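User: For documentation purposes, I need each entry recorded in a consistent format: the amino acid sequence on its own, followed directly by the corresponding structure tokens. There are two entries in this batch. Please keep commentary to a minimum and don't merge the entries.

Assistant: Recorded as requested. Entry 1:
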Amino acid sequence: MVKSPAHPALWLWAMSCPAQAAQAVAPNPLSAASMLQVAFGLVFVLAIFGGAAWLMKRLNALPRAGSQVLRMVGGIAIGTRERVVVLEIQDTWLVVGIAPGHIAALHTLPRLPHGEAAPAPAGFASQLRQILERRPHG
């Protein structure tokens, strides 16, 4: 039987020998359990980021108090930096031309019911009919 040293400091030193340290086995960082733990942690963090992004998108999509005064009905790109946009203000639609450094109102018209096409000019239908009649049928 091994006697413990008389002094407590010697006893602590004897316990911290390399032989004693070799008995305490450190976990393998490449084991399946530790890899699974890292994978679950990564999935958890990514799920938190995804949930936060979804929540922010939903919160920004809520209508704001001032958004009902002016609404963009539609628009089309005319050039690389030029657009024509239809804006709705109460019961009026504004056709606006937008270019770098310049915005111009092109036309105003009364608000159309949803899904209804804009009325064609009076002579448009007759002009189209004449053009179609002049074309050779093939």
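Entry 2:
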Amino acid sequence: MEKRYQALKNIAEKEMQDASSAHDIDHVMRVYNLCLYLARDEPNVDLDVLKISALLHDIARVQEDEDNSGNTDHAILSAEMAGEILRTLDYPERTIGQVKHCIVSHRFRSHNRPRTKEAKILFDADKLDVIGAIGIARCFMIAGQYGERLYSNVSIDEYVKDNLVDGKRNGRIKIISQHAPNIEFETKFKHIPDTIHTAKAKQLAQRRLDYMEHFFERLRNDIEFS
């Protein structure tokens, strides 16, 4: 990694030193590497913007996790923080604006949609890291962190109406302790392939989702048996 990107990684690592295991610097580097992998098949990608965005996309995650009111959106705050960081490092305003758009639009549960190629690649890479075997491991890490149940046998339609903002499947969670990994699968993971932008990411997403679907079906069967 070039020295200037290593410096940004160090900044991100410092901001995220108290982050949960599901949203730590390891997640950032997996997304960073996925971005580079997806960019290989996409023409005219600004790799500088993409690398910076990937390294800084979750720097406000700790602030969101510590805000019990649910009013902090880490994507929006991370974009603002990234802008301030890049200005102190004398990055041009054009680059800063592009990076901020990538970061603010990387979130699944958001009304901000990625418009640029770099933003779409970051969105895809971030989503790929929440599905498949890694996705299963991460969602149970989060479940343990917030005291969620292992499995919740509820009506998904009722749950969406009662506990997701605006009663939409991509709405932010109101009371996270009422959430569960299988609900996350039904309300978010299952719909990720429909939101993916790049062809390579779509292929990867479907394979990873098939693995998750089999796992949650097996989990439901094992729980019902007991």
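Summary note for entry 2:
The mean pLDDT is 92.
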